[in-house]
Amino acid sequence: MTAVDWTAITPGPHDIRLIVADMDGTLLDGDSRIPDGFWPLLGELQARGVEFVPASGRQLATLQTMFSHEQAAGVSSFVAENGNVVMADGDIVDVHGVGWDLTRDVIDMVDQAVASGRHDIGLVVCGLKTAYIQRADKPFVDECSKYYQALRIVDDLHDVLGTPGETVLKLAIFDFGAAEPMADELLSDIARTWAVVVSGAHWVDIMDPATNKRQGVVALQRSLGVTPAQTAVFGDYLNDLEMFDAGEWSFAMANAHPDLKQAAHYVAPANTEHGVLTVVRRLLGIGGSQAAQATQTEQTAQTVR
């Protein structure tokens, strides 16, 4: 399938009740910020009974912090940790994880790879309560802090094994080089049993093979009583691929990985052009002075930055 440009869509309103958007490279701008124009648009969505849901590899606590804006009171549903945690209307409705045995094996593998000097990588053990890291240099901690609001540095990740009441949702590896070649070299054996997902240029997630963002969106649709025909999804990278099967309105960003453009029905403008906002306005027939004012505000902000 070849995606067509978003401008081919007849201006709405269309019968859409759920909008699901990835964060990095999709909703977020070039500075990894939620565009200012999103907040008034969110109010329009809520007034029309449309649920907006962030879907990300980021931690649930991180997403909740990002959407703690005073105008975001209606954002209470999230697909976090690439689908391993799903919250609907403030309640966690779905949790998936990996076992302690896999966690131990990956800790050992990363330790050996770092000791050999072959890869400049670090591991994040992503727990339901908090994320754990062993590597403590500032560049690595800074990268992790972008995505994990609840983050704990430990002397040895082996000490985390078997923590009472904790669930390991996924294992995330950050590579200061390119993630895909590293994954091909180090994780090919693990990939026979577990899902190895390249979630960004520098990130790889190891997860339950039955879990992805699609599974998270389906759980939300079931909880909220929404159909795929009433669902629009937006994404830019490989961890968004399965999610496109959950919504009949599927959009790959102009900056998306080529595989997503093959899977999506439409191509949206790039995240740096606030493509999600532009397309949502068209889908729901939102226009007039408020939308124009929001767009102008965004353009002015970009020139100042």
UniProtKB/TrEMBL annotation:
Any Gene Ontology CC annotation: cytosol
A GO molecular function held by the record: magnesium ion binding
Superkingdom of origin organism: Bacteria
InterPro entries the UniProt entry points to: HAD-like_sf, HAD_sf
Protein name: Haloacid dehalogenase
